[in-house]
Amino acid sequence: MTISRSLGRSELRLLNRLAIDPSLRQATIARELGVTRSAISQLWTKLEKEYGLTIRSNIDYGQLGLRLMFGWALASEASDVLMKYSRWLKSNSLVTRLTGSMMSSTLGELVYFEAIVPLGDRQSWFQKQIERFRKRPYNLTIQLGEASNISHTMNLALFNGSTWSFSNDFRLLASIDAAKGYVDVLPSVGTVKQSEGSSTSLEDLVIASAIESNYHATATDLANRFTELQIKPSAGRTLRRKIATMKKKVHVPYADLKNIGLPQKIIVCIKTESEDSSLSRVLHAQASTFPKARVISGSSMTILDLEAPNTVDWLTMSEILTNLAGNTSEICTFIADRNEIGKRLESVVSTIASRMPSGDHEVRR
């Protein structure tokens, strides 16, 4: 699929530099490309406005006393129960993602969901609520797991400014199949391993959530956020120091773009018998094979979340991955509804802050 306006050579050069190193600031890019800071600023602003360019952060939730829970629910046909479950997810302030299927390889209906949950009592409560829908009278088939690795990738080498050259044929099968033999040594670029978890402060959560949304968040941005939450912010110099510390502690930046000819949302749900699946590791290592991908894996579950051109056939993709997985995995693939619920960590932090006693800024497990 082509986009409404082809990106120019200068825009592609800028985006390719950001894809390689998203942490780069405008002045550094200008110096490396041999152009003025003003020229890069103009291009950056244009890409922000037309293509939603944002440098976001992939984070280690465990360091913040949080856990990313993810999973999917399946109904064999149109189901009121699945609708009730979706309504419950929508009403839960900890749920950050809800995506329904338009068409699936199982011929049934699915919903995919994510929640960022504080460790301890609230995580136990959330899991018990999920368990409730597995029992009578609901009897839903629900898979639920804790994320242990999260990655975000975008391969602009496949993009010429107007069209994508990616196709899911035998070459993709051969590439991923070959990688299985080297999975122990292949680097998983952009993958953040999740820590077991620790206690943290509300101030750290606010800082982390701001950087997750915008890696280049400033002390002024943070001060405004603290004020919105009715918390007195630290001095600017202190906030700048804490931003730098937080980036080193829990964040890996990645470039995010919209409206660049990837209209098809494909989600592949994988459940394996083994808790240490080689397929999961291969997908993290080979995620950059796809135009734009997000991979989340847990002990026996993996999600491959793709944005792809309309030329990609999702059933073919499903067959390729099913063949790679063999008989030890259950795989379902679906075309996702674009009208999904999507929130970021900031929303969850606001919920946590609203439930804390006045003056108590320590988040406990």
Question: How would you describe this structure to a colleague?
Answer:
With 365 residues, the protein is an alpha+beta fold. It has 12 helices and 15 strands. The strands form 3 sheets. Strands 2, 3, 4, 5, 6, 7, 10, 11, 12, 13 and 14 form an 11-stranded antiparallel β-sheet that branches. Strands 1-9 form a two-stranded antiparallel ribbon. A hairpin with a 3-residue loop joins strand 11 (292-297) and strand 12 (301-308). The model has no long low-confidence stretch (mean pLDDT 90).
Q: Percent of residues in helical segments?
A: 25-40%
What is the arithmetic mean of pLDDT?
90
From the alpha carbons, calculate the radius of gyration and give it in angstroms. Answer: 21 Å
Q: Low-confidence parts, pLDDT < 50 over ≥5 residues?
A: none
Cα(first) to Cα(last) distance is 48 Å
Helix/strand order: HHHEEHEEHEEHEEHHHEEHEEHEEHE
Q: What structural class is derived from the secondary structure elements?
A: alpha+beta
Note the total helix count. 12
Largest sheet: 11 strands, antiparallel
Say how many strands there are.
15
Strand content: 25-35%
- Cα shape: globular
Reconstruct the topology from this structure.
Layout: H1 9-20, H2 26-33, H3 37-51, E1 54-59, E2 66-75, H4 80-91, E3 95-104, E4 109-118, H5 121-134, E5 141-146, E6 149-154, H6 170-179, E7 191-193, E8 200-201, H7 202-213, H8 219-228, H9 236-250, E9 251-256, E10 264-272, H10 278-286, E11 292-297, E12 301-308, H11 314-325, E13 329-336, E14 341-342, H12 345-354, E15 362-363
Antiparallel strand pairs: 1-9, 2-4, 2-5, 3-4, 3-13, 3-14, 6-7, 6-11, 8-15, 10-12, 10-13, 11-12
